[in-house]
Design brief:
Structural class: alpha/beta
Helix content: 40-55%
Distance between the termini: 63 Å
Low-confidence stretches: 1-10
Number of strands: 7
Number of helices: 17
Oligomer: single chain
Order of helices and strands: HHHHEHEHEHEHEHEHHEHHHHHH
Strand order of the largest sheet: 2-3-4-1-5
């Protein structure tokens, strides 16, 4: 911290999502399977236990908050590493600092690595012996399945806790709290929000509370102190909702699996929904390939024309393209 930062209150300009981070285990909203009474992460935080683990889940579900709270509750030093830019020199520096703090102050060190699935094998090998010896407690956060990315030796020394997207009721609860909180939220501005506007902000979050809080903060700035957030303002603040879809990641295969299971269950509405989600991701060739396989394996002789229809739809899509081609794929 330099001279100019010394007299600055960082909370004054921190984003609303940062200010509204839970301060205690009881403040968490959602993730009851991990943070409910007597659950694993709740017990770790309440008792100040240091344990290496990886948090696996979508953005905005509380991964970084959990990591920070574990370190705070255990009175440990908290060090963040970048999975992309921090290499061996930075790891050596952290290890030296951890040894010094342990010997001089009896304080343990928690190393937090966001997007840990992007950590290269050299960095993993460098940190492994220090995690094994207990000098470092490793907490990772990732949106991808770490089984494919972490070295087996490191993976065997950590537990993996899956986090789920927050439900609409959870996000609504956080937004309502932020509206009236005069210390950390936007309560001092005395802004009100129409129930319908709040629903738009909740839906725009799509399970990501950080995104929803960001939209609320923008909406409040748009209307000013004493203003009212209407549906129109909420829509503008939310912006375009981008459907989460990663061609090489878990979301891709989960959507594909949901489409096939819907076809097997003869749920036409669900199949069309998952088809639209996949088409929004842009990998149309994969979609057609999966439909061909499903027509052969799942439908088979129950409707011999299914394979012919999908094949014809695929050829028609090649000639027409998107967006009109999406209608063709949805008709079979």
């Amino acid at each position: 911290m330099d001279l100019f930062e010394a007299g600055t209150d960082r909370s004054a300009y921190a984003p609303l999502a940062e200010r509204m981070r839970p301060r205690s285990p009881g403040d968490f909203v959602g993730q009851e399977h991990l943070l409910g009474p007597d659950r694993a992460l709740r017990t770790i935080m309440e008792k100040g236990i240091l344990s290496s683990f990886v948090l696996w889940g979508p953005p905005g579900t509380g991964k970084t908050t959990v990591a920070r709270m574990v370190a705070t509750r255990a009175s440990a030093d908290f060090v963040e590493l970048s999975a992309v830019s921090d290499g061996i020199p930075r790891i050596r520096e952290v290890v030296k600092g951890a040894r010094d703090h342990l010997h001089m102050h009896q304080r343990r060190t928690v190393v937090f690595v966001d997007e840990i699935h992007r950590w290269n094998t050299t960095a993993q090998d460098a940190v492994l012996p220090h995690v094994e010896s207990g000098l470092l407690t490793l907490i990772g956060a990732t949106t991808e399945n770490v089984s494919f990315e972490l070295r087996p030796a490191l993976l065997s020394r950590v537990r993996v806790y899956p986090l789920e997207p927050l439900g609409p009721e959870h996000i609504r609860q956080v937004l309502e709290a932020a509206l009236v909180d005069r210390d950390r939220g936007v309560g001092v501005q005395e802004v009100t929000a129409h129930p319908e506007a709040l629903e738009i902000l909740v839906a725009g979050g799509d399970g990501d509370v950080r995104k929803a809080l960001g939209a609320l903060e923008l909406a409040v700035r748009m209307v000013g102190s004493g203003g009212v957030v209407t549906e129109a303002v909420a829509t503008e603040a939310t912006g375009l909702t981008v459907v989460r879809h990663d061609k090489g990641g878990d979301a891709h295969y989960q959507l594909s699996s949901a489409l096939i299971k819907s076809i097997r269950g003869s749920d036409a509405s669900a199949a069309l929904y998952w088809l639209a989600r996949l088409l929004a991701g842009g990998d149309v060739k994969m979609v057609i390939r999966r439909l061909l396989i499903s027509a052969s394996e799942d439908i088979g002789m129950a409707d011999p024309q299914a394979l012919v229809l999908v094949e014809a739809a695929g050829r028609a899509f090649d000639r027409v393209g998107q967006p009109e081609g999406d209608i063709i794929l949805g008709r079979p």
